[in-house]
Amino acid sequence: MTSSGAASADLWRAKTRAFVDREVRPIAPAIDRNDRVPDSLLRRLAEERFFGLGIPPEWDGVGGDARSLAAVLEELSAGSAAVAVTVAVHLSVCAAPILTWGTDAQKTRFVRALARGDGVGAFGLSEPDAGSDTARISTRYSTDGDGFVLRGTKMFISNAVTAGVVLVFATKDPALGHAGISAFIVPGGTEGFRVAQRLEKLGLRGSETTELVLDGVRLPPEGMLGPEGSGLKVALGALAGGRVGIAACALGVARSAFEEMQRAIARDDAEWKRARLARAYVEWTSAAALVRAAAERKDAGLPFVTDASSAKLAASRAAVSIASAGLDVAGAEGARAGSAAERLFRDARVFPIVEGTTEIQELILGRQLLDAEPRGNP
Question: Of 255, 296, 312, 359, which is most buried by a Cβ count within 10 Å?
């Protein structure tokens, strides 16, 4: 890690921690209880330029690298995982792929608006019958003159209710498999685009999770992102970067669960509780090292798919393990609905599922570790 990169991440971490203590942590129970991130908080996130992190200044962003983003998401998640996931999806799997694949005209129209926080960004890949297997998506696109028409249903889509931009993936013909998939930029409010339902979840309550219907959504030629048939590359690239961010979100929950354990044990210094706290510390700090390593490799322009999957796998497991132990340590008080330990456990339990399940991360790792050239010690 370069000193400048470390300094930038440290500055963003300090800024975010102060913001969370002041504006997120006090309302985190209400966010969870009401299943809503208040519009007022979204405006404050925009005003403090969190929605512009990682976006170059020429596109109205504030710059910043993967290490800075990981630090911000960890701190936000330590206060409210729902808030952190909202920002992570906006930046990692909506703004970032448009920056990578978009034309200057697309960046001017969409990335600048995302950087300002004029609506959040969303990512529309999963479907009722197509989650991990991207080739099975059934949302179709057809040509209409020199433009496109999209029809289909997307499921488990974050940020869609308040979305200013949704990155949607559709196939020209399911028989073409991956080669038939293309990516499209759909502005929020486009005719034929609607949120069919908002889904209730165990955890990450407040982060919008929805079913989307695209009923004859018409887009101009510039609505396609990247070359026709490149949708799988767009999606996989976005998801690889997104896993570093989601790993940082899981790490924030793991850290908060550890800190809750510390407070509970200070009131009841039982031997077994101290031993469990020690194990939690090792789980948390080990995951933190993997998240940091993945962000560093991404910033260095090195291959980081293995590192991102390792970080996501370790951080989500650490969050679940520590939050579960936190319930044991807290006892009856922790089991009460609305307690910090109970909320953290529900939030933690979602992370092994989102942004690629545990099983998918293990498959990715297994394939990468067998196919890649050895690179020495981690």
Answer: 312
